[in-house]
Amino acid sequence: MKTGRLNYIDLFAGAGGLSEGFMQSGFEPVAHVEMNEYAAKTIQTRIAYFYLKKHGGIEKYYQYEKGEITREELLQLVPEQELKTVINKEMSVATIKGIFESIDKIIAEKEIKEIDVIVGGPPCQAYSLVGRAQSSHMLVAMEDDPRNELYKMYVQFLTKYKPRMFVFENVAGIKTARGGQIYKNLQMYMKKVGYEIEPHELNAKDFGVLQSRKRVIIVGWLKGTGYQYPTFDVVDRNALVNDLLGDLTPLKPGGEATEYYVDDMRKVKSYVKKNGIREKTDVLTGHIARPHTEQDIEIYKRVIELWFKNEQHKRLKYDDLPDALKSHKNRTSFVDRFKIVEGDMDYCHTILAHLSKDGHYFIHPDINQHRSLTVREAARLQSFPDNYYFEGPRTAQFVQVGNAVPPMMAKQIAEKIKAQLTKK
């Protein structure tokens, strides 16, 4: 590549969590393939951030975040060659040829000699441990889910571009989906097209993220290259979840903030500063609380009180609520449908895309706020920096955040791969 930087292709890119880690590590994106329009726009906006930061125009990016210039005006400041790395198309048998052509054109224009890394993982809902993939009475319906076959598309990219290494990411449920056959087939195909592979189940909390988030990470390398699965040291988080949330403006249900509660960076917790979550020049976006019914607010307060009572960390069971606060007929499953984010612990439970539907599973730990998380709070728990702007309506933003790979985890994976690829 002309820049001399390592490059990568990001498949099923989502909002760019994996990509963020690789870009922060100095990798050059060749292409991001993502079917969702809002997620694709988020990646383009992030590309604008990196470009303007590098070329002395970051103030324009902040103006966009403040609503002072339009997105069109922002993107006009970025070369088209940078923006067209984002390919907003659904990956399928019918579209893959066109996607290959788009990427081939980029490779030719940038005079790229070889692809260093392919990263990404197909949409994980089909393999989710709480989804249909694990439900015995829904196996027949799951057989017809086209998302189950998307891993084959990933292998086609390996076949065509032959990257030196690849990173395949998915939920732990992929190991048991369809009786484990998908997982076996995936590894078989990867080996068949010329790769040595090694799968491991990794947890984001071991990478310094204040969240327990288990993911299967398969790393592969071309046979004969001598590369190997990276070894990762467990990172001491040395912080509480409340440290991550504390400098954000307190909100009541339906409230919105565009400025930080703690504006003196000396008072911002070291974890937030040390890990680049917030910088002095950042603009606060996405900090808008959902409105809640009086009934939900009352339940939220009970959930929070029970958690902190005598520091026992007890979860409220739905059936324990008084009848006046019960509105669901189903009293036997999802009995923990109301759940506090563990503010007084050094990691919280897994952030999910279900946040787009309701916030009952992600209740803010401050009883005075008695609400669910905002997009910005969820993004912080995923280790996204505050200058990461999510496009689309709030529902779409929650989906993007909930489906993402934590950038802090992605960066450490990228750094280890970079060390191998650049070793003399």
Write the layout of secondary structure elements.
Elements: E1 7-11, H1 17-24, E2 28-33, H2 37-54, H3 58-65, H4 71-75, H5 80-83, E3 86-87, H6 96-109, E4 117-120, H7 139-143, H8 150-161, E5 165-171, H9 181-192, E6 195-203, E7 214-222, H10 241-245, H11 270-274, H12 294-308, H13 375-381, H14 394-403, H15 407-421
Parallel strand pairs: 1-2, 1-4, 2-3, 4-5
Antiparallel strand pairs: 5-7, 6-7
Helix pairs in contact: 1-15, 2-3
Q: Briefly, what is this?
A:
This protein has about 425 residues and is of the alpha/beta class. It has 15 helices and seven strands.
The structural domain count equals 2
Structural class of the secondary elements? Answer: alpha/beta
Top CATH class of the largest domain:
Alpha Beta
Q: State the helix count.
A: 15
Task: Characterize the main sheet.
Answer: 7 strands, mixed
- Rg over CA atoms, rounded to whole Å, is 22 Å
Instruction: Please count the beta strands (DSSP E, at least 2 residues each).
Output: 7
Mean pLDDT: 91
